What does this fold into?
Amino acid sequence: MRTTRAVTEIVPTHIVREGGGFKVRRPYRMGRVMSPFLLIDEMGPVNYGPGEALGAPWHPHRGFETVTYLLEGRMRHEDSAGNSGELNPGDVQWMTAGRGIIHCEEPQEEFLRTGGKTHGFQIWVNLPSSHKMMEPRYQEVPSSESPVVEQDGVWARVIAGECMGATSSIDTKIPITLIHVRMGTGARLIQQFEPDLNGMIYVFGGEIALENKMQVKVNPMAFGIGAKQQIQDGELALLSEGDEIMIKSKSDSEFLILAGPELNEPIERYGPFVMNTREEIHQALSDYRNGTFLS
Ligand code: FE
It folds into this structure.
């Protein structure tokens, strides 16, 4: 028998400043509750005047992956491994920091000069302890190459994993699903999952509701412990286990579907380093200070 996922908890968001001072919208609760995701930051939307756009100047990372997905605006990046490039709307950059990378994420020069709207996401995906010290790597998927599917009022870009028959080329060490969805009022989407993966939905436009095909027959307390099944703009919904989610859009809506395994390992975070123990954090700091971080 297939089981349908329900909302178990709604995590609200708040606005914080990151990097060089840019505004992000971020769920109040992070870390273990979102495993394997460490951070889901919605950058903007913000309208910059000429010369105002902000970024994150040179900084290190170790022990996890950063995923940057741009919806509007233009950014450029550069890193200690000699990679550099531009991010335009719809582009995805999946950076595995592994044992260490130093990079900068800044507005593209011309965009900085003219100003404009910036909107996007930076998502931190944890690595299991066995891969925290892996070789750093970059995977970039320009919007022209990313799998996009559209049917019956549902539009989806598959950043990682699979949706409506489209599969992402992004390679991950643990199974990750990351899908950007836009739906028209009344449209429906059924998304399949491996039943034991943690699943969540972050809504950043409009409102959706999760439906349950067994609602009538089953004690509602068994689903979502009585949590409301509507998810609105600026809410992160944590989902129960199950084989699929059934989404109905209550308005024109826009959201991310995220899923991945419970890592079930301790998380020690200090700024841009995410390891399992304090000793590993101390090691990262001393490696960074004494110049052996990248070797
Ligand atoms: Fe970074």
About this structure: Helices lie at 109-114, 278-289. Residues 1 and 243 are 9 Å apart (CA to CA). Residues 56, 59, 61, 66, 103, 105 surround fe (iii) ion (CB under 6 Å).
